[in-house]
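Amino acid chain
________________
===
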Amino acid sequence: MSYNYTTEVEFDYLFKILIIGDSGVGKTTILQRFAQDYFSTEYVATIGVDFQIKTIDVNEKRCKLQVWDTAGQDRFKCVVSSFYRNANGVMICFDLTDLESFRNVGNWIEEVKRYCPEQTPIFLVGTKSDLHTRRMISYESIKAFAQAKQLSYLETSSKTNENIERCFRDFTAMLVVHTNQIELTYKREPKKPSVDLRERGKVIGNNNSGCWGGDKCTI
């Protein structure tokens, strides 16, 4: 695990952000560039999950980001899926030079819907924008897809540091608005009387998640 934070810093918001997408699209390099201003051409696949913590100021609010970098390989999906819980937002990354990684974005969206809380904000990120001659997906095609899915979209390059900071700042601003809307809705809703489920013949027990048997994942 990697750490990059100061314990005495106070904050207005704490957000858990997941970075997901196919293996090799550049999820780790995006996080390293954002959290440590570091870039390496050496590819090292993420095993399971890793995370960085960084505090930024957005719209005069101090936001502490706990950003999780997840493995994209299928063999880790069962482990990674448990980290979707309680996520405040998800970045889905694809490689602008890899058409297949863009085609798989729809599958990653379904993963978010399956495991994350309802209406979890999603931010679509195209990586490796500096590789102009190797680009495989047009901006127009991506923008049309993003609009159809009602997603914000930004193209980035970890190598040149293009839009990396902006990507996280824009998404954090979205999360602030989303969180405020949820809190406002909660305050407006009438309070429901508490119910003791045990009186209704139901048992509340520990439901520890895990992977059971073969490739079936119980969450």
User: Anything to note?
Assistant: Residues 1-7, 197-219 have pLDDT under 50 and may be disordered. The two ends are 23 Å apart (CA to CA). The chain has one domain: 13-189+205-218.
